[in-house]
Structures are given as C-alpha cells and as structure tokens.
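Inputs:
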Amino acid sequence: MTKQQEAPSTSTAGVSTINYAMAINHAMAEEMRRDSRVWLLGQDVGRMGGVFGVTRGLLDEFGPLRVRDTAINETFIVGAAAGAAMTGTIPIAELQFADFLLIAGDEIFGKLAKWRYMHGGQLSLPAVVRVPTGLLGGVGAEHSQSLEVFCMHVPGLKVVLPSNAADAKGLLKTAIRDPNPVMFFEHKGLYRVKGEVPDDPEFLVPFGVAAIRRRGDALTVVATGMMVDRSLAAAELLASEGHEVEVIDPRTLVPLDMDTILESVQRTGRAMIVHEAVRTAGAGAEIASRINEELFFALDAPVWRLGAIDTPIPQDPELEQLCIPQVAGIAKAMRGLIAL
Amino acid sequence: MVTSAGRKGPSAARDKTSGESSRAVQLYAMVARIRAAELALQRHIADHGFGGFWHPGLGQEGVQAGAVAGLRSDDYMFLAHRGLGYALAKGMSMESLLGDLFGRTIGSTGGKGGGTVHFCNPELGVLGQGGTLGSSFVLGAGAAISGQMLGTDRVCAIFFGDGASSRGTWHEAALQASVWKLPIVWVCENNGWAVSARFSEQSPTENIADRASAYGVPGVIVDGQDALAVYEAVSEAVVRARSGLGPTLVEAKTLRIRGHYEGDRQKYRDDIVLGLEVPRDPIDLLRRDVPADVADQLDEAARLEVENAFTLVLASPRPDPSIIFKDVWT
C-alpha cells in the first residue's frame, strides 16, 4: 500500500474529502497509471515526497525512472522537461516555489513557449510545470511572489490557477493531457484546505471555462487563487447588508473565459478584479481593459482592481498579509464600488 | 570509469587496407557538400545581402561531418549555430536548409526561418538549435531521458562552441546527466573565439575537455580539422552512451575562418589572414585518403547540387502572412 493510499480521506458516492495537495497528488498518480509516458522531476519530489508533500508515495509506486529527484537545478528541471516533451514523453516538472520560474526563464519563455512555433509546428511540448505560488507565512520576498502574469504575457503558455481541491485535481489532469505547455500555479496557502473531490479517473476540468462561484446582481468580482475564498467571504458580508455580489473564478488565465465575465458584467454593470499578484500590471489590468473595451457603455462605474501593493513581500508573517487583499478590505472595496 | 582528457589520433578509419577507405570517401563527400554550401552562401551574401545573420561554419566542416557520421540515423541531435553542416550530415536536404535560410516555404520550418534559423526535422532526430547559446545542454538531457524512458537506445548529440561552454546550463546538465548516466555525447567545436573574445581569456584551463573529470565523464580532445579522427572519437563516445555508461565530452579543436557572422569585419582579430584560405583545411586532410579523381568528382557534384538548390530555393515562394498565426498551439 502506498503512502498516498494511507492518507486520511473520507469517501462517499464517488467523492472524497481530501486536501488540495492530495488532490494534486491523486491527479498525478492517476495520469501516471493511465499513461506510462507521464513522469515527474524536481528537487525532493521522490524520497521526500516534495517540500509541500504533494508528491508523496509516487516514487514508491512508479520508481526512480519516472519520479526523478534532481539536484538544485531549476534550469535543468524545466529544460529537460522541454527536451523530453519534444521527444515523446510527458514530463511534469515541479519547481519548489513559483519565484524560481525566473531561474528557468529561458526554458519557460524561450523554449516551452516558442519551440513549436519556431520550428513550423514540427515539435509538440506537452509539459506541465507545477509551481507553488503566493504567500505561505514568513517565507520572504523570494518565496512568496505571484508571477502568473509573466506567463500570461508571453504567448505560447497555458496558465492555470486552481482555487480549490476539486479544481486542482481536474485542472491538473487536463493539463497533463494537454498537448501544449501548461504553467500550473498551486497556491501554497491552499495545500491543506480540504474539499470534495470526485474519484472518477475521468474527472477533468476544462481550460477556458470560468466557474461562477456565487450569483449576484450588484457587482461582478473576478478573483483568482486564494482570493476566490476571500472574495466569497467578503460577498457574504455584503449579502448581510443587502447586496448580492457575483464571484467568478476564471480558473485559467490562458485561455481566459472572457465570455462568462462579460456576460456577468453586462448584468451587474460593475466589475472588480481581485488577485494576490501585485496590482500594477497584474492580470487584473488586462481583464479590466478587456471589460472596458467590450462593455464601456454598459458600465455604471469604473472597473476596479485589488492586488498586492508595490513592495516586495516582507518576511514577517503579519506584515506580509498587509501587502495583499484581505476579506475586510475586499468588502470595503465592494461597498465603495457599489455606492458609485 | 573516469578518465582524464586524452588526445585522440587517427587510426583504423584511415587504414585503406581495412576496407574503411569508403568512410573517408563518405566523409569527403559530406565535407565537400558543406563546403560548397558555405562558399555559395558567402558569395550570395556578399552580392545580395541577407535577411538576417548567417554564422558561417567555413573551416569547421570536418567536425560537423565527422561527428554526425558517428551517430545513427535515429539518434537525436541539437545543432550549434555555426553553419548548416550538422543538419546536412544528419540527412536533411540542401533545399530544405537553404529554404529555411531564405525564409521559403520549402524550408524545414515552412517559412518561419530567415537568416540564422532553427533547422528541424524530428524524423531525422534534428531537434533544433538554442537561439540562446548553451540552452541545448538541458534540452538534450531531456531528449536523452525520453530515449531511456521509451525503451529505445537512442543517443543524443549536443553540439556547442567554446563560447557556449561558459553557460551555467552546461554545469547543471553535465552534473545531472552524468549522475543519471544519460545517453549523451557533447561535441564541442572549440574554434578559439566567442564572437570577439579569445577562448584563452574565458577559460582558466587550456582545454574544455579538462573540465570533464569534474563531472565524472571522459573528456576527449580531437583534431577537429581531421574528419576521420572526429568520427572515431564520436563513434566511441556513442557506443559508450548507447551501452548505458553515460555521457562523453568530445572537444574538437577547430578554427573560425570567417567572422562571427558573415559581414563581421573582425577588427578584433589578428590570428588569421582574412579571406578564403583555410589553414589546415579539412578537405586537404581528407584528400590524403581519397583518390584525387574521386575527390574532384565529389567537389563537382557538390557544386552542382548547391547551384541547383539555390536556383530552386530562390525561385520558390515566400510564406503567406497567415503563417504568423500558425503553430502557436497544438
């Protein structure tokens, strides 16, 4: 019996209550069982089971050729994944922190994103790069960033940000089956959050289909990652004050389901984007621009954005939370925007 | 087993009585084709200019032909940027390579090329060339892993220059590939110059192969002007890689005749006479082992092949602008 099977879970009618980390673990294990070309590499992903415990049990089940512990070499991890992807296998590369994607910048932005295009479509790059993103609590400026917009900015990469356990599993399975390179941003603060996750090995969450997490008519909030739950909590506060806020989780930034967002904003007349990434030139700027371009005359107020302030993240766990949107702050912004 | 850098000299392949003389003829044929293309491109650029940069490989044909001859047709290969010899030797057609250089649909990338491009033919194992020099080290390791995982005995050859050997990608790939005993042959064309920087100003050791022992792999130095010697050294490394013993670093000592790019006036150089003269010409070395009439015929055939390919390629269409939107996604 593998460690992952021993992990605590409750199961009823094809649904297990497991945490986000274990949902990701199950997605990898299921896909590795389904397709022998799928393999995993990264620092400490084997014997240790990953710095966040996400890959526990995989070495035992799949062996050292398919679960490869690397040295400290992010450039190698992603570069080898790119080279392997173009030669017929399906690598899942794990970087220990999303911040490290810049160490593999050329391999992500130069190779994964471009090599199919440059070579006239002769190569395919079905690689997944898993990167733990966001605040964890005291891990400092070089281990706390939300850099997904870098990947959104460079054409050729799909960009995924699951906000809950079920989506984490279903989106990762879709990512592994996608013939294109996928940047998969797992929120470190969500790893231990449990949710109901379908057991069905064919449970897939499609890319480019936003989830409407909450219905409302007063305001549309587009939130990603950790900010989805915070926006939902803020929306509950607003509901107690008589305002129903719609909360949309795009789930993937590339492809981006603007149809669902625009349909919602058309109804509510107000829109706000909330993300943990720095507000300046974040994904929210892009989404806000597209809303303005498409729906200017349907808007009752300007499109607002909430995001991290323009500073590095301080190491102190209390100070770091002051840098990113909080439930109270989101609720205050919701009130302000509805009042305009 | 770890061996320190050792020099390889010519041996069996040069012995005409062993029946290996045909190897010399084969190599001569390939070197002649590469040379003919190099000279024709040089003339064309001088007369007509070029839509980009061409990094000539004149004088390095012996390394490229010799090394690729040591590979199997289905082995993987990442090119370096100096010339088209690697891809031609791996089996790509003259028309497809010139088609890439001139941005025509007949090129292997279907018109995405133009200037120094990224020749590609996965069926022949030609996987491209890192536009960021040195990036092929890590990509090649990945191809070697695929070969291992898919149960094939394919080897991956990675070409690079002395300049690219300074990249951190080399260090990361060499360490990990050696630990995992990946089926890799690193072929360094040490031509002594990284654009305007002398090798001696960038390396504390005389040879790149001296670094091999630090990574626990054999380092082999070979005369890069001697195609037969390169062929032998690479063949031995390929056997080692294919049998699961891991990577080998082969350093071929060669020289850069032309500028970093065609048109580079090389004011920073004082080590060669600028012009067409090729010191220690790989063609002259091979001619010692090839009958003169055979060599002359091969020269003429190569000249004609290149002439015809130029005519065909320059008359073939440029891509439709809609190609811009193609192949971003699978």
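The longest strand of chain B covers residues 184-190. Flag for discussion at group meeting.
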